[in-house]
Amino acid sequence: MALPAYSHVPVARSEVPWALGVGVIGGLVAGVVFAAFEMMASAAMMGMDAFFMPLRMIGAILLGRGALDPSYSIWAAATAGMLVHMLLAMVYGIVFAVVLGGLRSAASDIMLGGTYGFALWIVNFYLIAPRAFPWFLDASPVVQFIGHTFFFGVVLGWFVWRSRERITIGSP
After folding, report:
1. What span, in angstroms and rounded, lies between the C-alpha atoms of 68 and 160?
2. Which of 63, 73, 90, 100 could form a disulfide with 67 if both were Cys (CB 3.0 to 4.6 A apart)?
3. 119, 99, 103, 132: which is closest to 23 by C-alpha?
4. pTM of the model
5. pLDDT by residue for the chain (172 residues), tens digit each?
């Protein structure tokens, strides 16, 4: 599929299938990078016993607050956490690719990706979490800012840019 060489936001109607696919895959890639960062940061700050705590916290969205208890099956909590995390990452990836995926430069895609990740952090941790999932307020705001902005948003922006580059290189 040849894509036009000009920038436009949101993507053109003819590009929506491309944006949906790139959003899903980009969201998954960024979601894995983000989860890995969160888990390593948790272990570095609180010891190896805390390695799976980010997944427990995310799993508690689906399983309830009980998933945070150390006696709760780590595999059940981590599996639920990865499921919820990856589903949200795909949805966030689709929104980014459809709404902002019509840009044409690495700088704009990567900078907007970081801004998008920052906005997700603000919405998720300061608007949604206090009301619906208060256990997220125990997480380090600095780690959450870095994770959302750089390890999710920037990675997603880079992925969308590289995906567009691959498809437009051979375009007339």
Report:
1. 34
2. 63
3. 99
4. 0.90
5. 444 455 556 777 888 898 999 999 999 999 999 999 999 999 999 999 999 999 999 999 999 999 999 999 999 999 999 999 999 999 999 999 998 877 778 888 999 999 999 999 999 999 999 999 999 999 999 999 999 999 999 999 999 999 988 776 555 4
Question: What DSSP line would sit under 76-138, residue for residue?
Answer: HHHHHHHHHHHHHHHHHHHHHHHHHTT---HHHHHHHHHHHHHHHHHIIIIIIHHHH-GGGGG
Residue at 36: amino acid letter: A
Alpha-carbon distance of 36 to 49, in angstroms, equals 15
Taking a C-beta distance cutoff of 8 angstroms, is the pair 129, 139 a contact?
no
Contact 39, 58 (CB under 8 A): no
Q: Give domain limits for the chain.
A: 15-166
CB 67 within 8 A of CB 77: yes
Residue with tokens 């059940």: 76
